[in-house]
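Quick one: structure for this chain?
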Amino acid sequence: MTTQSQRIVWMAGLGLFLSTLDTGIINIALPTLQTAWHTTTVTIAWTVVAYTVTLAGTVLFWGRLADRIGPQRLFWWGLIGFALTSSLCGASPTLGWLIAARALQGLASAMIQGTAIALATLGLMPAHRNLATGTLALLQGLGPVIGPALGGFLLTWTSWRGLFWINLPVTIPLIVLLARHIPPPLRTGEAPPMSVTGNGLLMLTVSTGLLALTVQGPLRPLWIATAMVTAVGTLWWERRSPAPLIPRNLWSSRKFWAAAGAIVIVGGATALGFMVPPYMLHLWGRWAPWQIGLMNLSAPLMLVVFARPASRLLNRQSTARVMLEGLSLMAVAFAVLAITAQDHSAILLVLCLGSYGLGAAAFFPANLTAILGVGKDAQGVMGALQRMAINLGTAIDAAVVGAILLHGAHVGHAVSQAGIRTSWAYGMTTLLAAMVGLWLAHHPRKTLFNAG
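Got it. Here's what it folds into:
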């Protein structure tokens, strides 16, 4: 890989890291923000919902546009927008201003996530592309997991405004470097037409679906019904539109849907992996916040150390096999935690989280390579689909696991412990389901009915 290509891969990866970091860094500050603005939990949750809705709802649009005009300039403008909106978030004088700025920040983040993968892999040979996807997997997987730990450190030494201003020392140099070294505006493939109706329906489906998951109250049934109706409408439009968001050849690809479903599940399992340990350690009652943050870093540390070496496995093994190996490690880690959650062993917790991180280091680059390989002429769309799948998985499992833990907290100490064990068991079950889906997609003749 040339020096120029390596530079572009790392700049794209750092952009992904920043945009995924802001998905979770604010979560730890929600109680602080609620106190600062003298508001309710439901209202303050909009600082998270607004960002997630615009990010997940528009990332596919930007990936589609990247295939049409090239990802280079879109990525650059996304970085500029991210720097500006981070400044707006940090300077917010009112809660309404902060929520609006977070929505705009999610839009800029979608521009980055929808174009970064295409930017980094455009024009690379297969062996070099595997190394590039390993680097991207390392940085995009690191962001949402390290976010809470970094957020706790910043809250200790600064104020909640520092959670947003921390983006500027990284984003501004990236903007300058990319302006100097940006490659020519090549397209990733053919120039597909854009569908305003399809993008609008998708945005409405994702928005209402996430609102149905995250917002409590009397309007929740309305959001659920609206999400179901718009989802059906989106599918109906996609199958008949002359310019579908998802290329038509993917609808019949079992391997694509298995890989996409697996990344939704892993995105959710990763959210579970950084949500549940603080509750466990808090329940044990003898760990300081900084110690909890350090122990929660064992998974991203393994991801950082092994993501690039694990990507080299793709030169010797199939993407399906590497994904299954990674999923196996993650499922075993969650199974051990589900069985031993009452042992109060911090060492065992760290080892299991580290095992999960090792499995993720193998899974993420293999999954990205598999998805990009299905749509070689639409790298922007394929990369954006992977990012949208991760964000949806994170939002879904955050809501599910939150409900499990909340139920336990209402009943008492014993049920709270049971809720933690149920969360780990739920994560293990979903990972096993991803393994079954991948195996069946790549071995269509070896089913339970004709295995013999």
